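Sequence in, structure out. Go.
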Amino acid sequence: MFENWIKADPKTHNHWKMFIQVMIMSSNPFIHDNIITFFCSYFPKFEDFRNNKGNKSWITCLNFLIDFLLTIPVLFLVFTFYERGIYLVFPISLLFIYVLPFFNKPSNITKFGTNPQRSTVMLAPGKFKFVFMDYQISTVFSLISFAILYCDTTMFDNNLSKTTKGGIGSMDLGAGLIIFTSGITSRQARDEKSSLKKRFSQSLIMTFLCLNIGIIRSIMAELMRKGDSSHGSHWNIFLMLATIMFVSVFIPNIVIPYCYILAFAIALVYQIFLKAGLTNYIIPWSQHKDFFGRNAVGLCQTIGLFSCYLMGLGLGRRFYTIACQDRKDEDTVILVTVLKHMFAWFAIFLLSYFIFEPTGPTACNLPYVAYILAMGHFTILAVFIPERIIPKLSTNLIYDGPAKSSRLIYFVTANLFTGITNILFDLEKHSVLLQTIILISYMLILHALFAALVKFKVKTRFW
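Output:
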């Protein structure tokens, strides 16, 4: 039985560690800001160096390296050296976020605890930007870009990178968090009066790009004889994105504020079908010889992940509504909204975990969807609270790349770099030291590319 198969996987018990790890990684931008601010407060020349008023290229490169050393290595340490002692590292990270600012010179901490910037900023009449979402996008995509290559290494026990049967790993968070985040920041969530024709035209480019990238990836995987992925023989995450973006066009505007109900209903009905025997049909897909059977698991995963998109869409519309009201208690309302949803989905996760079955990323069952949505709200919470009390005093060239560039291009580039790395190096045959050098170099080149795009104001953001 499939239930016994997943229960036999020891990685089923990673759920609590993943919450702590994501908390540390979500807090990483603020740890960086506090360390930079601390040195700027005591060393004026370092502050001039960071400001780079002369806009000198070599200073920009050095600042990039400083940002890299204060951010990316944390990802590596959390998943390797600190993985077993993650509960001890967690309080240390909190000290860097909430205690370190009090050691700055008084003139630099006068605004600590009361960030004067609004959590939503009006870009044009009726158009708002959610400031805290930049942090969430940056941390999520940096985690995903790290995980897609890290899971190919043999560093330590690689316990939290990728699950093969059940449970949860950092790689398993990728698709769900990407789709949940894209729902929050989608145009559909911020446009209450859009017609079906307008929504279709807006999503056409995104759907077309994802569809073509997905087809090219399937062909390349077939030519390279890479074998079946976790999404089936030919299905992949880009085809999932194309399908979800196309189907979401037909969601009426009147339904969007209640999408969280629809998300739960779809995930629950899908779970009932899984328990009724659908699981035995889609897993393992190697039992099928026809095209549909070998890709049925990917199509079914799309149903579960569509629930994640719907939840993101409803939450994005809620944020937009709060911003339009121009309320003085805007921060409180946003915080309460995120907390309510997070605890609700976490309760659903616990109930479905014990009533139905353990978390199954392969089938994207209800426990997995609920866990992803609870984690998604948690990532927002992990950046929203410190963003509201820590004034933005420094830039981070590492995190500006994913936040200010197209997330689709960033994700495609990370996958492309991963493929090139795996072609050039057989990571499993190399030592841990060489694997570490390759992994850090991969992250350095990836973020340097997107930092350069931001620096030279190359517009790539259309999603």
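Check: Residues 1-13, 107-114 have pLDDT under 50 and may be disordered. Residues 291-325 form the longest helix (35 residues).
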